[in-house]
Give the backbone structure.
Amino acid sequence: MKEIKKCFITLLYTRKAQAVKQWMENEGFSKEGSSSSDDELVDLTGTAQDLIDDVPYLDHGSTANHSNGSWAGNAGLLDLLEEGVPGVGTYDDFNTIDWVREKSKDRDRHREISRKKKQSVLALLFSLSDAFSGWLLMLLIGLMSGALAGGIDIAAHWLTDLKEGVCLNGFWFNHENCCWDSKETTFQERDKCPQWKSWAELMVGVTEGASAYVVNYLMYVSWALLFSFLAVILVRAFAPYACGSGIPEIKTILSGFIIRGYLGKWTLVIKTITLVLAVSSGLSLGKEGPLVHVACCCANILCHLFTKYRKNEAKRREVLSAASAVGVSVAFGAPIGGVLFSLEEVSYYFPLKTLWRSFFAALVAAFTLRSINPFGNSRLVLFYVEFHTPWHFLELFPFVLLGIFGGLWGALFIRANIAWCRRRKTSRLGHYPVLEVLVVALATALLAFPNEYTRMSGSELISELFNDCSLLDSSKLCDYLPLSKVGDKGANFSQSSNGLADRPAGPGVYAAIWQLALALVFKMFITVVTFGMKVPSGLFIPSMAVGAIAGRLLGIGMEQLAYYHHDWPMFKSWCSPGADCITPGLYAMLGAAACLGGVTRMTVSLVVIMFELTGGLEYIVPLMAATMTSKWVADALGREGIYEAHIRLNGYPFLETKEEFEHKTLAMDVMRPRRSDPPLSVLTQDGMTVEEVEAMISDTSYSGFPVVVSNESQRLVGFVLRRDLVISIDNARRCQEGIVGASHILFTDHSPSQPLGGPPPLNLRSILDLSPLAVTDHTPMEITVDIFRKLGLRQCLVTQNGRLLGIITKKDILKHMAQMANRDPDSILFN
């Protein structure tokens, strides 16, 4: 009865529309259709063929669909059969949106609002609320993302410490919080207090000796295995899209690709929980990349509170670009760096309005995180440091060396990781994701525990390496010999107000050097096999850790060189005995930036992020030198960053804007059909029946069909999408009286004479795009590729003297570019 009632209402509106159709045409109204589904990018769908079930059948509040480039009209006088069909104007899963159509819909919506706001106070208030809705949405995204990031930081810190012991005052306290109120701590042993007990103390009652070491070792490995097992099981059972970094897929989605469920509710919940578990397990991964995915999930869910973002895919992607900035803002406590990261690294379309809103959202998120204060030090990140010693011009040489190391490591890591991930996809290894995670977690825990620099979390390691030694530091990296014990070297001792003089390394520093060297080799190897597993895994922290270790080692070497050989020409002019010349922590920071830049190929945003981390303007030049050198070296060995490499590995249809097309091919060389292919499947504007069109749809898998005047003339009329065609025919068969397989389908304004007693025709002109992009057969592919990139096209028609010759899709272009680069063109899986 419900279905009959819906069809009856539709027929009533159809009859009413027929009475006013001529009046609407005379008044200049054009036809409308429905908007995109509310569930787009949110809920996993069974198959791409479920075209009707994922949207409400009759949506009286739906806005109009694009037709002939624009729409306008009286919303109360819609022909619902032709123009209000639910699902028309939406997209199948794993397809690319039509940017031109979506932007046209939004412009026409703005025109309609502007026209109506002069007619009544209510319409004016609606116009104001529509203009304010974008800023309100940014506020909500910032608040939600900041709160989630604060919770993730607190939970990860607690679970990481739980592997080593428990607080007697309350098991929910981490190590630092447990010892805050203790009056028995000292500067030398500030982490030891009676309230915090290691697992060995609780189980065997001793803190030293072989038995205590074995118990702590076993508990550390057991907790690591438990956390990693829970993470991979939750991902596998509830949200397969919650694994990995998320940034390659976010970049692809922002370019216009549809991946339903990737930014959905379950993905957000599971990613948040498993990110805490994965980081706490001790695996060589970070939470910074996945936080971008978390922020984009928040944005996509909140978009459904606002009609203009829920029903327009292009507008929603502007919000997701701002959410990417929010993710980096809460990950590093760097709002400005987050905005630049979104602009430089992930966004495909970034208008000026999105820049302002990204800045506002990043500001709100950083303020929210600061209010939560997850680390208890009034800082937004765990490894915030301040350096006071100025750098010297001659230090640019070791800074450039760090840049070279970062570029070499970045290029090596990308090649090794892609080779490992390809092996995972093509071998039996990919069939056992749970076993793989457990084996890697077991190997990581067994090898990490004996070395204190691999046992601690990635953020704590970076904080330790960035640290500028002071008198109260008890770290082995600050175990220098007192100047009073080194003879004449201390004669000219002078301690500056901001730092300690360069001193000879003590036994603690030499022990730390060996441990850091082993940690460097371990981190370089284990990160290759960890990134890409079926758990949430970021790459920022592991890459920074590798660079920070290398930088700290080089910094210590430079410091000792300056101390023992201060009379060398390179030190003599600016480094006098007893002066504070070299800051090893600065070298660690530059090494971290260089390695992260070599892996991701970030430049401007990376420098700003590192500047916001340190709060020192005077170190921008060294950061720029190291980052730029790293990019040059890495680009010389391979043009792709890690995210672009994973996009290509997964076969996503992403046209990289940074890549130049240098080949002298023409549109006719790329278009389909080729000479050996069957003729192009086309529809005629008035000569095909419903049965013939349905047969063509069932026999092909194309996402759309060109419409021509006739098979003989091949004069182009327009283009119709497969999804719109299927939905409209199905809806007409159910709800329009007399539509059968023999009914003619018309794409014209006028209805040609029909045989007496024959079935009524079905007019689908409302779903026809009368202004498809077309190029001639001799258009250079360089220009065609630029058109696809700048307009976000999914297909382009090829004509010769107005006659249709073929079609070029984004997939065709990507296959052609892969073929020109001697890569496998069949690796491009989607359009």
About this structure: The radius of gyration is 31 Å. The longest helix spans residues 121-162. The chain has four domains: 2-92, 133-372, 393-439+459-467+498-521+532-647, 667-827.
